[in-house]
Structures are given as structure tokens and as C-alpha cells.
Amino acid sequence: MSRTAGALTLRSMAVTLAPGLIHHPGWLSRGEQEELLAALREAARVAPLFTPRMPRTGKPFSVRMTNCGALGWVSDVEGYRYQTTHPETGAAWPSIPALALAAWRELSGYGHDPEACLVNHYVAGARMGLHQDRDEEALDASVVSLSLGDTGVFRFGGTQRGGPTRSIRLQSGDALVFGGPARLVYHGVDRIIAGTSTLSPHGGRINLTLRRVTRPSP
Ligand code: SIN
Ligand code: MN
Question: What's this model's pTM, rounded to 2 decimal places?
């Protein structure tokens, strides 16, 4: 829960899940969640959700995606990559919403802004298998994740595939930071729990991950 006292926003207590993996329950207030959702709806008019596909097999993901920022993450039969344009419209991605940028500046501890904000949309039954976020050159920058809408069962392990894992629930407004020794942890989403949020009348879960992709020039 976060409360606004005058100009000062008091944020919730952070929970360290593993070294470098920090959960901030209720980082965004309800008003901020609504504002961010409205900004994402605007962004999706410019950059509609698309269905990514697995490299080589072309199997569709159950999650639909879009991006904001100078670079967007895409996946198709040719592989995973960042690119400057939407894979279907060919247009540049819209800018990163102000509240997401503010969260990055407060939480990442990185002196440069993110270049990519991947927006994942989960409907009931959607999931994301365990993976590492490793398509970025700037692995010294944390990944900052924000969740909106229905609760997601988020699973994480260590930096080796096949090690022990744990799950936590990410609720609407939560932030999660993966940095330092946790930058390359395996993570995924087992399922979403339908009906756990009133944020969107359509239900579902949205997750934003903010990433610095290129190394800043010195
Ligand atoms: C991701 O790893 O891209 C998404 C994680 C999440 O949905 O919480
Ligand atoms: Mn990821």
C-alpha cells in the first residue's frame, strides 16, 4: 500500500526474495495503476498487441505483447531480438509512460533511462515458461517489473536452469527488481488468478518490464 502525504509518497516495505531480487508490494497506488493502465491503452492504439512466436518452431506464445520505448523486444521464427519498430505495423514504438519511467528512476539505481518497456498481456490460461532475460548488452542494469490487474503466480529460481524454484504472487501495483546477482535468474509465470483485481473491467494481467538494452556511452 502506498500513501500520499502532501508531496511525499510513502512507499511500502521492500521484501528481499534473494540477493538482488527485491519485491515492492503495492508500489503503485490505485490512482497510479489507473493512470498507467490508461497510458498503456493509448500506447496500444499506436502499437497493438501482437502474438510472439517461438524461435525455430513458430509456436505462438500464450501471452500477447507490445512495447514502449526506443527499442522493443520481439520473438519470431528468426529468434529473439530488440528492434526499433513494431513487427506488424513497421511503426516506431510509443514512448514509455511517465509513471513507468518514474518507477525505473526510483528503483533501478541506474544512472541512465531504460530503452525498452515490454508490455505482456495475460488472459486467463496464459503463462510464461521459465527463462532468463539475457538479450540485453547492459547486464549491469536491473530489470524493473510492474504488475497491473489480476494476480500472477510468479516463479523464480537461480541462475542455473533446473535448480530449485519458489513462487510468489504478484498483485496489481507491485514492483519487482532483478539486479546484481539476480539479474539473470530464471523466472516465469505459472498462471494468473482470474477475478483478483477490479482494475480493468476486462480482467487479465499486464506486466511491464523496463530494460536498459545498450551500454551507455562513457
Ligand atoms: C517476463 O518475464 O517478461 C514477464 C514476467 C511477468 O509477467 O511477471
Ligand atoms: Mn523475463
Answer: 0.95
